[in-house]
Design goal:
The structure is a single chain. The protein has 16 helices and 15 strands. The protein is of the alpha/beta class. The strands form 3 sheets. A 7-stranded mixed sheet has the order 4-10-9-8-7-5-6, sandwiched between helices. A 4-stranded mixed sheet has the order 1-2-3-13. A 4-stranded antiparallel sheet has the order 11-12-15-14, covered by helices on one side. It starts with about 25 loop residues before the first helix and ends with a helix.
Length: about 450
């Protein structure tokens, strides 16, 4: 008897109309869908049977590579043991175990963990905690939130409001009130083709002083930034920029929040970007690599000072009126603990440091190719930017992304930049292949 196959295994036969895809040009995509059917290690397999190198760790999340049996077994075991448990006034042991494991690898002092289900939820949670903290600390006038231009902090109303990517904001007329933005750090004139951290731009952190002068320090609750913006195509911070940002927030009593949804869990060759830069924020938002992308999960790391400020009043009173049905979901916790085991056993939280120089040199070997206007890198994240085609933003970048996919490489596109962030198990041969495919695509398309 002929073995039955699902329609998804047969190229170009699926019905595409019902699915409204996120962050996708739906009409364009559905004319020529790019579909994956399976994944293992460093590779996806497309529905037509081609191997495609995962140059983006999924969406910055599959840090330990695809198809890890240890995670799958933990998930299966948990589903058949305890598939769900409420997290409001109830709990389950794995939630506490997972929080303890995360606290062990966190930057010193960030050992109070609040679970969410995504980066967007982590950001909105951190912003709400910041507001609640200042109120509990007797500073209720501190309600203003400061983001940064070109920042990406998810798609909730809080994250969208503090975010600074224009296209993510302009379609939605209603944003949170009391939000402002400091300047971004991308300076092509002075820092094009900089390797690792750019030399120029630390003074841009002083824009916090402009916010203070404009609004008053006693109105500002928090500043939130990505240590390394990722979704806007990898913008490593200038040397000493984050240190200066920390100094200014401390000076003015403003909480500093690092959005480490992308940089967390080994992306820079340290457990978190806070470790890499030697700068400890007051809160840190995470998701993505926390479960290797296998099950939705996120977490906010906070200081004891923030946590304890809310642990007041009668013991029977809820301290923070916030949470999610799936906070600390048992299956997510099982996946997360298995992921942390893999990270520990294989040294993946620091392995990127061993590969960073080779990765950097590979990317920068593309300098001089047609229309390449900038190359940026730090740790195991980088971007190659090409000039817009005839003033049409993203057209050349899109064609490059498609050409790479057709040639066996998946990369994340952001405008006319292609972001590169492979799983942390990447070997030199994979980097060579990625650079070769991207080089050929630039020569053909750009």
């Amino acid at each position: 008897m002929e073995r039955a196959v699902t329609v998804h295994q047969i190229p170009n036969t699926i019905e595409t109309e019902s699915l409204w895809m996120p962050f996708t040009a739906n009409r364009q995509f559905k004319k020529a869908p790019r579909l994956f059917s399976s994944a293992k290690g460093m590779y996806y397999t497309s529905v037509d049977g081609r191997q495609v190198i995962d140059g983006s760790a999924g969406l910055w999340c599959v840090n330990a590579g695809h198809g890890r049996p240890q995670i799958a077994s933990a998930v299966e075991r948990q589903l058949t043991t305890l598939d769900f448990a409420p997290s409001f006034n109830m709990g389950h042991p794995l939630a506490f175990d997972f929080a303890e494991r995360l606290a062990e690898i966190a930057p010193k002092g960030l050992d109070r963990i609040f679970f969410t289900n995504s980066g967007s939820e982590s950001v909105d949670t951190a912003l709400k905690i910041a507001l609640a903290y200042h109120r509990a600390a007797g500073q209720p006038t501190r309600t203003r939130l400061i983001g940064r231009e070109r920042g990406y902090h998810g798609v909730g109303f809080g994250g969208m409001s503090v975010g600074g990517m224009v296209a993510n904001r302009r379609q939605f007329a209603t944003h949170l009130p009391g939000v402002d933005h400091i300047r971004h750090t991308h300076d092509m004139a002075r820092n094009a083709f900089a390797k690792d951290m750019p030399d120029y731009g630390a003074e841009l952190a002083d824009d916090v002083e402009r916010m203070v002068a404009l609004h008053g320090a006693d109105t500002i609750a928090a500043v939130i930034v990505e240590p390394v913006p990722g979704s806007t195509a990898v913008l490593p911070p200038p040397k000493n920029y984050l240190q200066r940002l920390r100094e200014l927030c401390t000076k003015h009593g403003i909480l500093l929040i690092f959005d480490e949804v992308i940089t967390g869990f080994g992306r820079l060759g340290t457990p978190f970007a806070a470790n890499f830069f030697g700068v400890t924020p007051d809160m840190m938002t995470t998701a993505k690599g926390i479960t290797n992308g296998s099950v939705p999960c996120g977490a906010v790391f906070a200081t004891r000072q923030i946590h304890d400020a809310l642990m007041t009043g009668p013991e029977g009173m809820i301290e923070l009126f916030h949470g999610y049905t799936y906070s600390a979901h048992p299956v997510a916790c099982a996946a997360g603990i298995a992921t942390l085991d893999i990270y520990k056993d294989e040294g993946l939280l620091t392995r990127g440091a061993q590969m960073a120089d080779y990765f950097r040199d590979g990317l920068h070997s593309l300098k001089g190719l047609p229309n390449v206007v900038d190359i940026r890198n730090i740790g195991l994240m980088g971007a190659v930017e090409v000039a817009p085609r005839d003033g049409v933003v993203a057209a050349r970048g899109y064609d490059l992304m498609v050409d790479c996919f057709n040639s066996g490489l998946y990369l994340r596109m952001s405008g006319d930049s292609l972001a590169v962030s492979p799983p942390l198990i990447v070997e030199k041969k994979h980097i060579d292949d990625m650079v070769s495919i991207l080089s050929d695509a630039i020569k053909r398309v750009a």
